[in-house]
Amino acid sequence: MGPATEGTARPTVVLDVLGTLVDQTGSLERHVTAMAAIDSGAAAEVARRWLGHVAEQERAIVEGRRAFAPSHELDLEALTWLVGERFLLPDAAGRLADASEWLQPWPDTVAGLDLLTADVAVLGLSNASRRVLAGLSANAGLRWHQVLSAEDAETYKPGPALYELALNSVPSGSGAPYMVAAHAWDLRAAAAAGMRTAYVRRPDGDPPGPGDTFDLHATSLLDLHAQLLGLMDQVPADAPRDEAEHPAYEDAIPGEYPEDNPDKTGEDRFDAG
Fold first, then answer.
1. Which residues, listed in sequence order, are joined to residue 23 by a DSSP beta bridge?
2. Considering only CA atoms, which of 202, 264, 254, 207 is closest in space to residue 226?
3. Minimal CA–CA distance to 203: which of 122, 139, 108?
4. pLDDT, tens digit, for every residue of 84-112?
5. Neighbour count for residue 263 (Cβ, 10 Å)
6. Helix, strand, coil content of the chain in percent (nearest 5)
7. Count of CB atoms within 10 A of residue 247's CB?
8. pLDDT per residue over 219-251, tens digit each?
């Protein structure tokens, strides 16, 4: 499919970022290992408590129990707490202050975004602050037409205001956008706001439950792109990805993910977004 011509509107996808485009948990664990000079087991515990502390604060903000604070400030609060609980030394905490800006993309993310931005309108919608999103965009090579932060709505997903912000940002004539996420809780909230939904499997995501009926299910952003083209009658819906006539497919590597951990669910990752 070529670029849209004047007078035509392309479909819109709204992409979750943390956990869907970047490996939030694994990247943070590796960053803690390197910056705090501790073993991987201890780093995994630090990352778990860090993300859990941030999730608790985001939940309190959504429920109106505390004033809004952007995600980079919540990260600093979490690091201060970790130092106070003796999980981290103060100098290590200082070196981890910008860790969320250095989360690594999944193997298919950059190539997938290149494909999507060529053929559909692409918005990012994240619980990450503007500062963190700017760092991720630069450091991970993320590409989109617009990115929206929880900071813009002064609340966090799954609060309705953030999805309303995305709906109000969709180009005219595009129709209801697809919310794309690895977290079923995120997609449920998006559907309640009037968005279509596309689940993309990720190792640390929140998989659909028996009662979930999302519009699309994809194994990667490459698969999502192929499905969207199929829906737009550009290629048959069941055509293999490598038969799609798009040059970016030649360099796109879906990648191999670690085995899913059934003990980690998206409900524990309230802050993913």
1. 104
2. 254
3. 108
4. 999 999 999 999 999 999 999 999 999 99
5. 6
6. 45, 10, 40
7. 10
8. 999 999 999 999 886 444 344 444 344 444 444
Q: What is the pLDDT of residues 8-66, one digit of tens each?
A: 568 999 999 999 999 999 999 999 999 999 999 999 999 999 999 999 999 999 999 99
A 10 A CB-CB count for 240 gives 9
What contacts 24+ positions apart, CB below 8 Å, involve 129-138? 129/70, 129/71, 129/72, 129/73, 130/70, 131/70, 131/72, 131/101, 132/71, 132/72, 132/100, 132/101, 133/17, 134/101, 135/98, 135/100, 135/101, 135/102, 136/17, 136/22, 136/100, 136/101, 136/103
13 and 123 Cβ atoms separated by less than 8 Å: yes
Token pair in block for residue 59: 């939940």
> What are the tokens at 199?
């689940």
- Residue 260: CA count within 13 A, CB half-sphere: 10
pTM for the predicted model, two decimal places: 0.84
